[in-house]
Specification:
Blueprint lengths: L2 E5 L8 H15 L4 E5 L5 H5 L32 E4 L13 H18 L2 E5 L6 H8 L3 E7 L2 H20 L5 E10 L4 H14 L3 E7 L3 H7 L11 H21 L13
Parallel strand pairs: 1-4, 1-5, 2-3, 2-4, 5-6, 6-7
Helix pairs in contact: 3-4
């Protein structure tokens, strides 16, 4: 069976969709895995980057009874190992649905997807609601991208409480894959101070790698390719950082015993 990896954060603008897309490419290109990407964000940023892999169904349909997960593509080319279930404006309507029907329907689709794919990557909206709850209830691990700013760190405490709460009440197999440090600026004293603050409360959850602010990453995704396929010298350093972070994340996803199981994220 495959693994369900959710990319989530209560705060928007931290690069959640960017890293979800890059992780899907990393799994397909470097791990030779078949990957189903489910975009649950109504802004559909992941869907724009992966538009050429879109299926004939939208992610909003996965919350309805009788819904079915997509099939694994038949092509053998690396990039064609990815299948996208795109987001749309219809996702906002899911938040108004009955939880006792919406959540089980989506969970059923996830269970079906992990029987067909090596990995399922879910990009969630930047707010706790039925879509994020359904994703966490059906997930194996959560990756939490964070930008080293005060507001992002404050929001991380709420996100971790959500993760541990879901694990305690609904999904005992759920693990925190790790906090991913994104858009890091080594010359920023403010970010260095924020990093120290983050280490005080969340050190055991932080993946020991940093992804810096680099123009090559959005440029590559705008072209519909991962950064390591961008034919530019500037993309090499960005690629090394991204790959190092994903290798550490992947180790935690496939070896859940290595992930901390503290009952609460804060004392």
């Amino acid at each position: 069976m495959g693994k369900v990896i959710v990319f989530g954060n209560h705060k928007g603008g931290v690069g959640k969709s960017t890293l979800a897309v890059l992780y899907a490419y990393w799994l397909a290109d470097l791990q030779q895995q078949s990957v189903c990407v489910i975009d649950l964000d109504a802004q559909a940023n992941s869907s724009k980057s992966l538009a050429r892999f879109a299926t004939g169904i939208e992610s909003a349909q996965l919350f309805h009874p009788q819904a079915r997960a997509p099939q694994v593509p038949g092509a053998t080319e690396d990039a064609q190992r990815i299948v996208l279930v795109p987001g749309s404006r219809h996702l906002a309507e899911i938040e108004l649905g009955p939880p006792d029907k919406v959540i089980p329907a989506f969970r059923g689709c996830l269970l079906e997807a992990v029987q067909r794919f090596d990995a399922v990557v879910v990009d969630t909206p930047p707010a706790l609601g039925l879509r994020m709850s359904a994703a966490l209830i059906g997930a194996d691990a959560v990756a939490c991208p964070i930008e080293l700013e005060a507001y992002s760190i404050d929001g991380m405490a709420d996100m971790l409480k959500t993760i541990f709460g879901v694990r305690k009440r609904y999904n005992p197999r759920l693990r925190l894959g790790g906090i991913l440090l994104n858009r890091f600026n080594a010359h920023s004293q403010r970010q260095k101070a924020a990093l120290q603050h983050l280490a005080l409360g969340f050190a055991e959850f932080v993946i020991p790698a940093r992804i810096s602010t680099r123009s090559a990453i959005p440029e590559a995704l705008a072209s519909g390719v991962p950064v390591w396929r961008l034919p530019r010298t500037a993309a090499r350093e960005a690629s090394l950082e991204v790959m190092a972070a994903f290798e550490l994340l992947h180790q935690r996803v496939v070896a859940p015993d290595a992930i901390p199981r503290r009952a609460e994220p804060l004392a």
